[in-house]
Amino acid sequence: MKSQKNICITNFDIDLIRFSRINKELILELSKKFKEIYILNLHNLRLVYKTKYLSKKKDQKLFPKNFKIVDIKNSNELIKFSKNKKLIIILNGITRSVIDFKIFYLFKKIKAKLVMISITGQWGSKIFIDIPFKNILVGHKHLVLKGFYYVYRILTILNIFSKINLLIESSKVNINIFKNGFSRKFETLFPFLKISLYRKIHHVNSNVFDAYYMMKNKKIKKSKNDYILYIDSPIVSEDRIQREGPVSSEIINKYYNNLFRALSLISETFKKKILVSLHPSSIKSFTKIKKKFLSKSRNLVISKNRTSDLVYDASIVLFSISSAVLNAVILKKKIISLRSKYFGEYNLKVNDKNTKGINCPFLNIDENFKISKNEINFKFKKSISSYDKIIKQRLTNGTKKPSYIEIVEVLKRENF
User: Which CATH number is associated with domain 6-206+397-413?
Assistant: First the structure.
């Protein structure tokens, strides 16, 4: 029997292509277990940085029939929508910034229960401002988006905004941080003061584990190891622009020239073709990107498939800043990190954090490097020996239950 609970998911993106790809299994499971699920486009409620949502008709085809996409144009429409409903809102794409304070205030007003889902297992970024002083002017958007976090926290403590009723998290490391933070310790001493942001925390497996679990269940034959997988990440990302401003075409061209040269050398060294897995945000530009890649090298194959579906048959996985590399960790694959000064300061930090976290070898694609197979194979063995710790701490909860099943079970049984 399908649950009558009113599950909503917030959206601030220009379309829902990326969301539907990343959350494919969860979407199907929600569809099976709940009567109706609403995707709420809340762009118009933002103070600034509003994006124009254009593709409702097209996006509706990406979801099962009981998913309803609702455009909320103003505060009154959200209040009207919530009437006679007990809303459980899954926070997706919302910031802790002044631009979304109005939305959090309205959530409190309509007595919505808030759920946050974090199941990537990745190494996170800082919750507050993390740009050098020299970037203050070009990074003004980052200041707006990150600079109000502690104001947001004070407003949750004062109960002007709702706290997060349920955090669903795959990383044991993050859970320990939340449970041992100042707010929890303070609340232990003074239990009548409910100041912790996350009222309940539920530990689930990661979406990386989910992909691994599905492969095991399908009893796929032994990995073919017949290509090298390159997990592409856009050099011009929103995170970078917010902190460092626009990226010049000269920087972009230099980066891609170095990247293609490096990919060719890696392909020649290991006598394998390179299969390129595009970032979810790049899928809508697939034809254009494919043409760009193939104009540089005929030994590249560009795929529309998800990274999680491509890692299994790869002999080596190359990445720069994508958290999707954790799919290679759980499958105990050989991993090489690609590094470039043209990433920009922020992406270089992300690359460094991921590379050290995985303990994998890296290549600076801006240099004329040579690859010693003996040396890099030794580094592969050393790196792979550290994977179990990452898997245990960030990707699994000790059960064999996929996150998309457990998330839905928790939402159904939780008495908010």
Answer: 3.40.50
- In the block, tokens 């996929």 appear at 402
Under a CB-based contact definition with an 8 Å cutoff, are residues 68 and 30 in contact? no
Provide the whole-model pTM. Answer: 0.89
Which parts of 243-385 are beta strand (E)? 274-277, 300-303, 314-319, 334-339, 362-364
CATH of domain 221-395: 3.40.50.2000
Q: How many CA atoms lie within 13 A of 195 on its CB side?
A: 17
How confident is the model over 335-348, as pLDDT tens digits? 999 999 999 999 99
> Where in the sequence of the chain do the CATH 3.40.50.2000 domains occur?
221-395
pLDDT digits (tens, 9 = 90+) for 56-110: 778 889 999 999 999 999 999 999 999 999 999 999 999 999 999 999 999 999 9
CA separation for the pair 130, 35 (Å, rounded)? 42
User: Count of H helices and E strands in the chain?
Assistant: 19, 13
Residues 223 and 312: beta-carbon distance below 8 Å: yes
The secondary structure element, H or E, covering residue 372 is: none
Nearest C-alpha neighbor of 166 from the set 404, 402, 414: 414
Question: Strand 201-203 relative to strand 227-231: parallel, antiparallel, unpaired?
Answer: unpaired
